[in-house]
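Hello Y.,

Per our agreement to keep a running log of every chain we model this quarter, I'm adding this entry. I've kept the format consistent with earlier entries: sequence first, then predicted structure.
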Amino acid sequence: MTSIYEQALGGDFHRLHPKIQERFGFGSRDGIASIGEGVMDEIWYSSWAAIPLHIGVTRHIMFPNKGKGIPFRIENYAYSDKYGRETVTWCRSFQFSQRQRWFDATMIYSLERACVVDYLGTKQHLAVDLDVSIAENGGIRIESGDQRFYEGWLRLRLPAVLTGKADVCEWYDDKNREYRISVEVRNPLLGPVFRYKGRFQAHTVVVADGRVPEHVKPLREEARA
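Predicted structure for the entry above:
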């Protein structure tokens, strides 16, 4: 099964740094996952965004904490969800001095929308279109687009002024032999909302018989992209 990122990039996928191809090139039938551990050099959020970030804590959608030198872990598993869609987990944990925080998501490639769709949080209530491209440093760049909220029969397209636009870049640092990541979320009117940047090592693990850990899967799956 072609990875969802190779589906998005087509032939350009092979322009990625080989180590980035390794992290983004596997699918559910490959029987492997990528686990990363490292440190976020900086995590920051704007004080005006504290309340909405607090709301996101219970569903693992960002958080109102900041700091430097924060231990970090990321778990990327590929599996087929109950709708038969190729899915990749993005389960990120951050160990602050007083508490642990999570930022979880699952991604699919939508033929209907012709892009990767990112479901944020543990219940896939927020669906975000992603534009995937090649960064100048051979990394992968991901920029968010339209956002939709789903709850029962409700389908609501969220206006840009009420959301944040995410700009993510992950690349491989050959000199230091480590992965690097930079994430920034900005509101079109109010400016920076949330950001983090750091470094990590990643290793491939075998997923025996497709046994993806339950803790990385969402509690609810949304059929609508």
